[in-house]
Amino acid sequence: MSTDDEPAAVDAFDMTDAAVASAGRDQRDAAPDGTVAELRDIETRPLAERAQGYQELADRLRAELEHSDPSGGVS
Hey, CA dihedral for 39, 29, 13, 7, is it positive or negative? Predict the structure, then answer.
């Protein structure tokens, strides 16, 4: 049940293409240049091949984070 006082839920499918592109651009702008280039490369691949690219990128970033964490790693 919803009331007028509750904020409306935002559905990703209701976002315009421009809003989706802007949100992605904002996130990429905060990423290091190498990561941005890697994301662009992944996004040019056929859809069926992107999951593996994203997983490899996530694994690399996780390893870099764990290596740079002064507390000895993320648990």
Answer: positive
- CA dist 24 and 62 (Å) reads 20
Quick: pLDDT tens for 3-61: 555 555 544 445 455 555 555 555 555 667 889 999 999 999 999 999 999 999 999 99
DSSP-based three-state secondary structure for 39: helix
If you ran DSSP here, which 8-state letter would residue 16 be given?
-
Reduced to 3 states (helix: H, G, I; strand: E, B; else coil), residue 34 is helix
Structure tokens of 73?
A: 């790693």
Residue 47 to residue 27: CA distance in whole angstroms? 20
Overall pTM > 0.90: no
CA 28-31-33 angle, to 5 degrees, is 100
CA dist 12 and 24 (Å) reads 13
